[in-house]
């Protein structure tokens, strides 16, 4: 292909993707609404796309940018002077490294564990799977927060890490960090605060006079915090910052190996080779916006959240699950309304919202990650919500065929075969043309309803099979 043809093909491929600008995609992307900020981030990514963060002595500009970005985050989160940090590829990698460092700091513990609320991000379960750290899961109450004393009682001699969220993703509420960290500190265990969503919002919310409980390094016992710059710092994908209270706490995060004839490998993250582009993009955006820029953007996004919450309160059939502490809103539906149909109806009206499956006896919900750019469209969003609720009520709930429910119940998630998966597709009417590959309907309510009747283990198995089927080579 010629260069123009390749770029034209790229634009054509992108046409079916969700929009990343305009504030109407309320999951996966975060939009400041500022074209100049977006431009400087993208230009910085392009300028450093060929740079390699593997060796900071070879690319000292990357080291300088990383130290400045970490310094900004440390000041933002009231870290002590001796605090240190690392820029990672995203919130999941920051969480993985926090768990790995906690485990490796306690080599004497034969079967390490970590105490987490049931609302902790799934990345902690991923870390547990990767690093052989057992999860001790503490239930949450009606306010979707864990009891800190229950967290404390769950700590034992195998515990290497205690986790709190600021806020938790599914419901958008801040855990009682002060009390949880005190429990961890009293038993000489590390405490990590997952602030990947809230870390770049809550400090500015506090400056704006909002009621924000202490959750950062001002809290005794908090030893590390993760905060994503590609979320509410509005930087390009994908960067996050992992901060430790001291160099000693970070040391176990590093990996070095001289056990081969090549160069001695030394890594601060799970990656070795890593493009300098995302780091440069994050540095450029943070440097451009600065404190005053983020203060203004935080005011916008919180105003949008308040308007959305107030508007939801005026729509029959839906309600806010719990008052949000930051920028995440979870919506519950009454018995007249199917949340998965509501999600489809919102998508058809140009607003992408995220379905959340039922869990631990609690019903399915609809999730919104609000951006600063959403403020300008809040009135349109609420009109779309009212119209979508009416359409969903008229359509009625999605009903999964009892035979399909029985089929799913009879499957073993640990031994799900390709034949089992194809049988489920056929039974649920999702098979499509066998020669054309996996076909999904334009509306996802039926698929989500099918997943919702499955156990968490079966959901995992079905989605792995689904992803495996989608991710196949495109060959001529």
UniProtKB/TrEMBL annotation:
Tell whether Magnesium is among the UniProt keywords.
no
Cofactor(s) named in the record: pyridoxal 5'-phosphate
Q: Which GO terms describe its molecular function?
A: transaminase activity
Note the Pfam families from the entry. Pyridoxal_deC
**Keywords, sorted A to Z:** Aminotransferase, Lyase, Pyridoxal phosphate, Transferase
What domain of life is recorded for the organism?
A: Bacteria
Listed InterPro entries: GrpII_AminoAcid_Decarb, PyrdxlP-dep_de-COase, PyrdxlP-dep_Trfase, PyrdxlP-dep_Trfase_major, PyrdxlP-dep_Trfase_small
Q: Which family does it belong to?
A: Belongs to the group II decarboxylase family. Sphingosine-1-phosphate lyase subfamily.
Q: What is this protein called?
A: Aspartate aminotransferase family protein
- Protein source organism: Nocardioides daphniae
């Amino acid at each position: 292909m010629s260069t123009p043809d390749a770029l034209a093909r790229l634009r054509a491929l992108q046409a079916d993707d969700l929009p990343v600008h305009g504030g109407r995609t309320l999951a996966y992307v975060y939009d400041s609404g500022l074209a100049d900020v977006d431009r400087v981030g993208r230009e910085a990514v392009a300028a450093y796309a060929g740079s390699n963060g593997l060796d900071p002595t070879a690319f000292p500009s990357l080291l300088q940018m990383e130290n400045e970005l970490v310094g900004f985050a440390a000041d933002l989160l009231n870290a002590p002077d001796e605090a240190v940090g690392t820029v990672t590829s995203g919130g999941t990698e920051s969480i993985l490294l926090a768990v790995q460092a906690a485990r490796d700091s306690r080599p004497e513990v034969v079967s390490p564990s970590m105490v987490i609320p049931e609302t902790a991000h799934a990345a902690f379960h991923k870390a547990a799977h990767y690093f052989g750290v057992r999860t001790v899961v503490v239930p949450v109450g009606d306010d979707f927060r864990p009891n800190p004393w229950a967290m404390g009682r769950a700590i034992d001699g195998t515990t290497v890490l205690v986790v709190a969220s600021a806020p938790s993703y599914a419901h958008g509420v801040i855990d009682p960090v002060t009390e949880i960290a005190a429990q961890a500190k009293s038993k000489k265990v590390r405490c990590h605060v997952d602030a990947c969503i809230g870390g770049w919002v809550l400090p500015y919310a506090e400056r704006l006079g909002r009621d924000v409980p202490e959750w950062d390094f001002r809290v005794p016992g908090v030893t590390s915090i993760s905060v994503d710059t590609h979320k509410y710092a509005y930087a390009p994908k994908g960067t996050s910052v992992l901060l430790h209270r001291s160099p000693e706490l970070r040391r176990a995060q590093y990996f070095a190996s001289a056990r081969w004839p090549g160069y001695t490998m030394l890594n601060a993250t799970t990656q070795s080779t890593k493009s300098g582009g995302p780091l440069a993009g994050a540095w450029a955006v943070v440097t451009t916006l600065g404190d005053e820029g983020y203060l203004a953007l935080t005011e916008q996004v919180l105003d949008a959240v308040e308007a959305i919450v107030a508007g939801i309160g005026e729509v029959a059939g839906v309600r806010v699950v719990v008052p949000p502490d930051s920028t995440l809103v979870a919506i519950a539906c009454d018995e007249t309304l199917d949340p998965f149909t509501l999600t489809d109806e919102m998508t058809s009206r140009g607003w992408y919202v995220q379905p959340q499956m039922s869990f631990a006896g609690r019903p399915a919900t609809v999730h919104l990650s609000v951006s600063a750019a959403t403020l300008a469209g809040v009135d349109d969003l609420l009109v779309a919500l009212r119209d979508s609720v009416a359409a969903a009520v008229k359509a009625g709930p999605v009903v999964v065929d009892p035979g399909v429910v029985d089929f799913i119940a009879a499957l073993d998630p640990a031994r799900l075969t390709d034949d089992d998966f194809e049988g489920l597709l056929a039974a649920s009417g999702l098979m499509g043309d066998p020669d054309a590959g996996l076909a999904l309907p334009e509306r996802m309510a039926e698929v989500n309803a099918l997943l919702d009747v499955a156990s968490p283990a079966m959901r995992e198995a079905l989605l792995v099979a689904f992803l495996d089927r989608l991710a196949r080579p495109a060959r001529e």
